[in-house]
Design brief:
This protein has helices at 2-13, 20-30, 40-57, 102-105, 107-115, 140-150, 164-170, 203-215, 219-231, 247-250, 266-279, 315-325, 343-354, 360-371, 381-390, and strands at residues 35-36, 73-79, 85-93, 120-128, 154-160, 174-179, 190-196, 234-239, 256-263, 284-288, 300-306, 326-337, 393-402, 407-414. It is an alpha/beta fold.
Length: 416
């Protein structure tokens, strides 16, 4: 059983720096009854409950002892006061062997999602026993929390037809793929479903923000933009660029050979094109894309990301992608908000200069909402440094004096 724990912990680390213990803390906040199985005793009880239940109700599905795909699964359970298991299910993470019911979801569909950079998982092996204080539907918020924490974008489930409407009612992000005739020897037929995990921030939030982000530049933003621009050189990529507001600060910099902005928001992209057209530099361009899906034609000399990391679903994966797109000795300027950020104070300080700006009310409202998102990656310095070290970067310098100590800037270098 120690092999199980080490394998699933290692598999998670490929996608996120979070530990199983930290995941358990997050799960307990969502539902204190739900636990992640880690000990030999817990796993034995899970497999006993599975085998007993499935042998009776789904005789064609063999699920007793630990299977190969369990080594890639987070196994969840609840128990009563006597430590008797009352329910269980698992979240199987995508792996070289794929999902257990891969063909039911459509092989071509899954391969396309993988090609687009999605991290897939499968919810299954569910049992709700007598005496359980939670229903199978109450596992859904727990699964979504786990998925967001480790970067899973899509959760698939091959479920009984009779549960489909309940899942659709509980999970607004669920959709039916297809109904099938499969019944695993039971009286129920099964339906393939896809649950689209909500991002930390939805793209439409950035679309709404785009116009006010373009027209307003506070003194805090200007100071940070100027400093970041002074550090860049060669072929530059701006990741999570918004509407390319850094570009004007690079226009007359002779050290800059080219500039590529990358942002996933359609409105930011369109306004970024407007900004770059105003600048009129042929070697300045913008691409509508997620950072981790951007494919560089050549290695970049330097990269920059300004107040974007807090919105990333999987920071470790994105940072590794950035590391790979840089030249050896390439520079990465990473600025991100930290726990000291006082958005209310910052907005109050700039209000006197922007009070009559037509977009200031929207700018104020949206920035307040963005900063107060409970899912944001707002990291203290030790966690931020641990994250960048794990991705392979060398830290050259650290500053935490921007935005009145609410933004940390780390200057990083790629060393092979």
């Amino acid at each position: 059983m120690k092999t199980y724990y080490s394998k699933i912990a290692k598999h998670i680390r490929k996608h996120s720096k979070i530990s199983i213990e930290e995941l358990q803390e997050l799960v307990s906040k969502v539902n204190p009854l739900v636990k992640i199985a880690t000990t030999e005793k817990e796993l034995e009880k899970v497999f006993f409950l599975r085998e007993k239940t499935y042998a009776r109700y789904y005789p064609d599905l063999k699920v007793g002892s630990i299977k190969d795909d369990d080594y890639y699964s987070l196994i969840l359970f609840t128990e009563d006061e006597t430590e008797k298991l009352t329910s269980t299910c698992r979240l199987l993470l995508d792996n070289p062997k794929g999902l257990s019911e891969e063909k039911q979801y459509g092989n071509n569909h899954l391969q396309q999602l993988r090609k687009e950079g999605n991290f897939l998982a499968e919810w299954g092996r569910a049992v709700i026993g007598r005496g359980s204080k939670i229903s199978i539907m109450e596992y859904i918020p727990v699964l979504e929390t786990i998925a967001q924490s480790i970067g899973v974008n899509k959760i698939f489930v091959f479920n009984r037809d009779c549960d489909v409407q309940r899942i659709l009612g509980k999970a607004s992000f669920a959709e039916v793929i297809k109904k099938t005739e499969e019944n695993f020897g039971s009286k129920h037929t099964f339906t393939a479903m896809q649950l689209n995990v909500s991002s930390r921030y939805e793209v439409n939030e950035w679309n709404e923000y785009a116009s006010s982000f373009l027209t307003i530049t506070t003194c805090y933003q200007s100071e940070l933009l100027k400093y970041c621009a002074s550090l860049l050189f060669g072929n530059v990529v701006d990741l999570g660029s918004g509407c390319a507001k850094l570009a004007p600060y690079l226009k007359n910099n002779n050290k800059i050979y080219s500039y590529k902005a990358v942002d996933a928001s359609q409105q930011m992209y369109e306004l970024g094109q407007y900004v770059l057209n105003k600048i009129g530099k042929k070697n300045f361009s913008i691409e509508k894309n997620y950072i981790e899906q951007h494919k560089a034609n050549k290695k970049y000399s330097s990269a920059v990301s300004i107040n974007s990391l807090y919105s990333w679903n999987n920071p470790a994966k994105v940072l590794q992608h950035i590391f790979n797109m840089l030249e050896d000795k390439g520079l990465f300027v990473l600025a991100t908000i930290n726990p000291n950020l006082d958005m209310k104070k910052l907005l109050n300080n700039v209000e006197v200069d922007l009070l009559f700006h037509p977009d200031f009310d929207k700018f104020q409202k949206i920035n307040t909402c963005l900063a107060n998102n409970n899912n944001a990656n707002i990291l203290p310095l030790d966690e931020l440094l641990s994250l960048v070290h794990t991705s392979g970067f060398t830290v050259l310098d650290v500053r935490s004096d921007f935005y009145e100590k609410g933004v940390t800037l780390v200057l990083l270098e790629k060393n092979m």
